[in-house]
Structure formats: structure tokens, C-alpha cells
Amino acid sequence: MRRSEFERAVSDEFGARGGPVLNDLVLTSLGDRTASEAMEAGLPPKDIWLALCVEMDVAPERRYGAGRLEPKGR
Q1: How far apart are CA 37 and CA 27, in angstroms?
Q2: Entry's Pfam families (predicted)?
Q3: Using H for helix, E for strand and C for coil, what is the string for the chain?
Q4: What's the pLDDT at 60?
Q5: Residue 72: count of CB within 10 angstroms of its CB
Q6: Backbone angle region of 32, left / alpha / beta, with phi > 0 → left and psi within -120 to 50 → alpha
Q7: Which of 11, 45, 56, 70 is the most exposed place for a label (fewest CB within 10 A)?
Q8: Over the range 45-63, which residues count as b (16 or more CB within 10 Å of their CB) and which as e?
Q9: Per-residue pLDDT tens for 6-32?
Q10: pTM for this model (two decimals)
């Protein structure tokens, strides 16, 4: 997952709450960091996304591949 995919996934899943979720929610599984702090520390976006999903109880079917653009037509 690229950072742009991560940002799209957060926006799609949390909407206007995305900013506070990234900046205020402390994720124990990421060393007691917020998602923003984890990103600044260089943790992989996919790991951060999955930690957010667990903490926010995102349905499993919306966790994997979220934020990816639709494939281009050939």
C-alpha cells in the first residue's frame, strides 16, 4: 500500500473524521503512536492502515486493498 492509497482509504472509510482519527487516536500496536506519528516514523502505510482498522472495528471486507484505484481499461 502506497501513502496515496492509505490516504484514500482513510478518506473513504472515515470521511471528515479522518483527520482526528489520524492525529488523535493512539494505537498501542504501533508503539503507542498515532497514525500520523507512525507515518512520520517510517512505518509502512499498510501496517498503519490495518492497525487503524482493528482499533476502529472496520469490517474485514473493507480492510484489504482499500484505497486502490480501479484498474485502467485496456
Answers
A1: 10
A2: DUF3046
A3: CCHHHHHHHHHHHHHHHHHHHHHHCEEHHHCCEEHHHHHHCCCCHHHHHHHHHHHCCCCHHHCCCCCCCCCCCC
A4: 86
A5: 5
A6: left
A7: 70
A8: bbebbbbbbebeebeeeee
A9: 999 999 999 999 999 999 999 999 999
A10: 0.84
| Res. 38: pLDDT tops 60 | yes
**Taking the domains of the chain in order of start, what are their residue ranges?**
3-56
Q: From CA 67, how far away is CA 1, in angstroms rounded?
A: 8
13, 62 Cβ separation under 8 angstroms:
yes
Amino acid present at 71: P
Distance CA 12, CA 59 (A): 13
